Amino acid sequence: MGRRDYFNDPDAPTANSVVPSVVAVVRDERGAVLMIHRTDNDLWALPGGGHDIGESIAQTVIREVLEETGIHVEVTGLVGLYTNPNHVMAYDDGEVRQQFSICFTARPTGGVPTTSSESREVVWVAPERLADLDIHPSMRLRIQHALSDRASPYIG
Question: Quick check: 24 and 101 in contact, CB under 8 A?
């Protein structure tokens, strides 16, 4: 399913849903960040997705990272809450979702980078190379917050 992101766009469609979701900043022993090249919007992103009934939010992180990347993780911390009403995603099926994303840090515990229906590429990227990737500004903010070792989680 295709997706179009609207960020601070006065012509954006009105949101008709909110779905709690997660993303994870997974860093390996060298400090590289696990990134996916998304199939729905052709942008680079942190792995993540929607929270399902019956699971804890940490289980959502573990499941989504594994599904999109093939990497097993352990959740290690909270980066922040991202709920900007001026960031909406319009899907081909008519859903227009307001951003509601919780960003976590995690460490890899096993697995092999593997693509999925949501990820056309899965790579470890050195922090200094992240600027070379086409990343949505909202996703870039999460990465910036995670790499800056903030004293407290971002709430916004």
Answer: no
